[in-house]
Amino acid sequence: MKNVLCVDLEDWYNANLANGIDKACAEDRVVENTKILLSIFREAQIHCTFFVLGCIAEKYPELILRIKQDGHEIASHGYAHQLIYDQTKEEFRQDIRKAKQILESIIHIPVESYRAPSWSIREETFWALEILQEEGFKNDSSIFPFRNFLYGVSGAPRFIYSTQIYSQKSFMKEFPPSTVRICGINIPFSGGFYFRFLPFWFVSGCIRALNRKGHACIMYIHPWEIDMDTPRISLPFRDRFIQYWGIRRCRSKLVKLVTSFAFVPMNEME
Ligand SMILES: [Zn+2]
Q1: Which residues in 174-213 are b (16+ Cβ under 10 Å) and which e?
Q2: Residue 26 C-alpha to ligand 1 middle, in angstroms?
Q3: What's the CATH number where 189 sits?
Q4: How many angstroms does the Cα of residue 225 sit away from the middle of ligand 1?
Q5: How confident is the model at residue 17 (pLDDT cuts 50, 70, 90)?
């Protein structure tokens, strides 16, 4: 069974919880961390989808070329990692257009998959699906079927579906991050804090359970999550927990993941 592993390609200071820090003075660590990810994926002989932030591509075009040369899909994570529900429709259109142009000027093939910063397509921003369609995207992975303080749409489908259910003029393929249903509740496990927090036996059990029912698992990771020396900034307790929990063990967990399951890029899923 083929699954999808995505990398949200951004630096540690692009995460929305790190919003208060001065990005101009922050140390860039994304290139080294991404090279480590690439070597892990090469070793495991898997290919992934890299949702690249436009401002990172602009700064490090050779990194993006290297990812493409390794056979991975280059996709868009927008330009500046601004939450969609904090933008107007026009600002959103300009952000995704700019990022797409930068990426396509580097790789010279169309960029067709998109993921919103911090899964920020919620009920009030379903209009983004129509704009993404108009701007030439075919795949989206921005609607988290679990609602929390930052993101998510409760009751959203858990498996690959058409965005037409939320927007008449949009017919992209939607790839929701995988969840497991326990006692009628969708429990996230497939990336970010959830992947770092949960033991590997639980995560791998969830993937096997989905695969047994014929569903691909959609997983995700950020380069800074495998960086044991990621700069620690002062954050309120909840945000510190979400941002840093499990980073020490994350790299070895990722190696176990990619050597235990088969992964293909999003644009290669049937
Ligand atoms: Zn992101």
Answers
A1: bbbbbbbeeeeebebbbbbbbbbebeeeebbebbeebbee
A2: 17
A3: 3.20.20.370
A4: 12
A5: low
